Amino acid sequence: MDTENQQQFIERFNKLQQKNVLGVTAEALSLLMAYDWPGNIRELENAIERAFILCNGGYISIGHLPEDLTAHVAATVDGAMIQSAHDSLDIQAILAAVSRNGCNRTAAAKYLGIHKTTLFRKIRKLGITLPEQDGRSGSLAIQ
Description:
Layout: H1 3-17, E1 21-24, H2 26-34, H3 40-54, E2 58-60, H4 67-100, H5 105-112, H6 116-126
Parallel strand pairs: 1-2
Helix pairs in contact: 4-5, 4-6, 5-6
């Protein structure tokens, strides 16, 4: 939504609601733009109308938006944060297991209680850089 269309939208709702809303905060606008809007433009319009009703003046903020919209975004952010924390723990566990087992990846997988191909897949997925020594015979690993 460009600035001109946004301003027309705000002016229209100001007239309808007899309010003096100045605009939408950048955070609220980002949230509105990031949402999928499965109920099409009518759902968006209802969300904006509700925000106008709740906003007594100034700018529409995230607090004026419907809870299902803010909860959806919060769940997405929480999910990303949880995944990031999980990945960090996996990286620490893998590095500790490899170190503890003298760079022997097969022994590290056994120590972690996972199959060696699962360990190799996690190492690739998480972008872990391991020492070149493979720990099996003291020679350099061929990768």
